[in-house]
Structure formats: C-alpha cells, structure tokens
Fold these 3 entries.
Entry 1:
Amino acid sequence: MLKAAIVLLLLTTVVSLFSGLFFLVKDEGRGSRVVNALTVRVTLTALTVALIAWGLHTGQLASHVTW
C-alpha cells in the first residue's frame, strides 16, 4: 500500500511538472498559475520524501543493496 502511494505521488508530481510548463508557455510568465503549480509540486515532493522516510523507519521499505 505504501509503495502504491509513493508511485501515485510521483506520477502526480510529474503531471504537476508538465502543467507548470504548459502554464509557463501559455501565460508567458505573467500569471500566477506557474507559481501555484510549483507550490503543488514542492508539496507533493515533500510528501513523497516523508512517505519514503516513514517506510524506511517502519521497515516497510528496505534497501537490499549488497555494497
């Protein structure tokens, strides 16, 4: 369940990235929609990092790297 939430947040972050690009091209930097898209993207990224940290802390996510 945690992995699905992380993947969903990552996909939503990518959608927010492209919506910000669309607003930047369409509004030519004059509107506030680019700033709103950036705020959403930063919030989603912070939530993703928090979920990854939570998963590592609880043991639901583990690194199996041998080095």
Entry 2:
Amino acid sequence: MKLRLFLLSGLLVAAVPPAAAQCQLCAPDTTASGAAARQAATPLRVDVETRLDMGRIAVGAMGGEVEIDPASGARRLRGDVVDLGGFALTGTVTVRGEPGAEVRVILPASVDLESGHGRTARVTGLATDLSAAPRLGLDGRLVFRFGGRLQIAGLDDGDYRGRIPVTVEYQ
C-alpha cells in the first residue's frame, strides 16, 4: 500500500484599518504604528516546498500508524504495519514577510485523508520544528518543517491524499 499525504497551504493576515483623513485629535488613532504598519505593507506569503509523505507501508488486520518527526525526519511505525521502503519526507514550508516580524503558525488538530476507493485515514499530532516564538529572519523568510501521525484501520490499502491547511499570521 502506498500512502501519501499532500499539503495545501492557507494564509490568514489581519487587516490594518486605514488612517484617519482629517482631524487626528477628534477621532481615536486608527493609524498603524512602527512594525504594525510595515507588516500591513508586507503581506505574508506561504509556499509549500516539500509535501509531507509517509512513504510506502503495508497494513495488517490490526491496523497501525506511521509517524514522521518534524525535527529529525525519522519515521516510526506502530501496530500491524510493515515498511515497504520509499522515501518518507517531512513537509517543508517557507513563509515570507516583514523581516524580523514574529509570526504564529497554526496547524489543525487532525485531518482526514481519502483513498481512491472511499476509505479514510486520519492524520493527528501535527507539529512543527519551530521555536515557541518564531520570527522571520533578516531576509524576511522563515523555513520550517512539519510532521504528524497517520492512523490507518486494518487492511485499508490505498493511496491516501488530503490537504492540511497551514495558517500563518503576524503576532
């Protein structure tokens, strides 16, 4: 059975309200200041460089799971699964925006994948190799990897595919 997980990147950026046109003393200050103004002028861009791929495995009657560690790229098999080889890859994402800006990356708690035969498998435990407070570099880029745990019911063979929304926003 060949299992593959494909990724779709999403993007969410909060809008900054426009500056007041007339009397700045008469209305509350709605202008963005400093870093917030630069961030509004530099929208975030998210590019998927590498799709998450769990490799090729065979699943027995008891089912099991495949886990890809985002930091090391190591693949771990649990349960009634057999490694059939192939390359297992962490997902790799590049974020571009305001240099030095702090960002927040949000991954869903779980994602259901579908095979061509209508069967489903679930990816849980999605995690990145990011620090607790990720920032874009001086070049305005941040590259991170992510992995997760694919849970497969017994004898559910197929080529599983799905989309994992990746949300990135300025802090």
Entry 3:
Amino acid sequence: MLANGACTTNDKQWLWNYSGSIAEKYRIGMTLVLAGSTVSGSYFYASQLADIRLRGRIAQGTDIVLDELDAADRVVARFEGRFLTSDPSGRYQGDKLECEIITGTWHKLDANQGLPVRLTLDNGTAGSLANRYAAAGATDDELVHRQALRFWHAVKRTDKPTVAALVAYPLNVVVAGSRKRIHDAKELVANYDAIFTPQLRAAIANALPRNMFVRDQGIMLGNGEVWFGADGKVIALNPP
C-alpha cells in the first residue's frame, strides 16, 4: 500500500488541473483551488464537458473529501481520497509526490459502494474559478469554452468552413514540413488537408476543450497542438 502524501499548499489564486477517471470508464477533468484545509473546484465528464461544482476539505495534508453540489447547492455525491507520495507507473521517476496524484472513490450519497477514482496533475495555472483564462486576457471563460468546443467538433467532423471561421488571421502553419502564412479563411480551406494532418486531427480529437492550461500567450488545447486567444479563436497550430 502506498504511503500518504503531504499536500499543504495555500494559494487561492492558483488552479490545480487534474485529469483521470472514475471506475476506469468515465474520463474526467478536475480543477481544484487548494487553500490550506479548504478546497473548492469543479469537475466535468469528457462525455458532457459541463462543470459540476465541488466543495471540500483536506485533513493533515493527506486525506481529501470533495462534496459534489447540484444547482441548489445540495450535496448529491462525494469524492473521498488521499494524496500519494509515489507513483507505481514511474511517471515521476521515483520523486516524492505531494499534490500530484489523488486516489480514492466517488459515490452518490445514497449508494452503498463507491467507484474507484484516480486523478493525476496535468498542470497548474494562475487564475480563479470565476476567470481561469485571465492570464491570456480573456474576460469570459464560457465564450472561450464555446469557441473551443465548436472548433473541436468541427475538426472531428471535417467541417472545413467552420474550422476556418474560428481562426484568427494571419496564421502561421506547417505545410509539408515548411512554414506557411495563411491570410484568410479561403486560403485555409484550400490548404486544409495539408495543415490538418491525420496526426493533428487525432491529437485534437483526444484533447478536451474545457478547463485548459493558460499563460499570457494563449490558451492551450491538448499538449499544445492548438492555442486559442482571449476571444476563443485559434491563434496557433502545432503539429504533433
């Protein structure tokens, strides 16, 4: 059995972004604000991409309890877990962990048995739950999410006109290994198949267009294959 960790951070202006699963079946993303023993945050299912509010606490830097709240602020489900000090997968190369991995269970309040949960830290960003993309100059998180979701769906459907409409021009791209400057939507559609290679389309489809990493230069989808600006339009594409 793995030993407990010691997650004792206290910063109300820092977002901890995790990804993982419930029952190894339901892919989820979670953002937490860790303020000493108090926790606030939200999580979403990859199948729904809608935030569910969380409120909870940390005991002794090891055990974490997160209450899932409905629209009326009632507790309807609960995460119960702990922070680990080591990872058997070897991702952290034997380093001692603090807040990087959470394991435990999720259950509805009226359920007798919980479902296993594992969450791994993806990144941390400055910001707040009310305005997570402020570092990139965004003032409306939901606008960014709507635009990113439209782009994500359009790429998956090969809806070239919609993809082109969601790009900020001019856009520098890679075509056949060389840099090319795309000046407008018509030019992007004409070069679409060369820009959106099967590898890039697959990386975009596997990413989740919600609760994304942000910095002053933009908002990142996936591992940086796509960057959005403050208005949710694409400002950079990077083939994997």
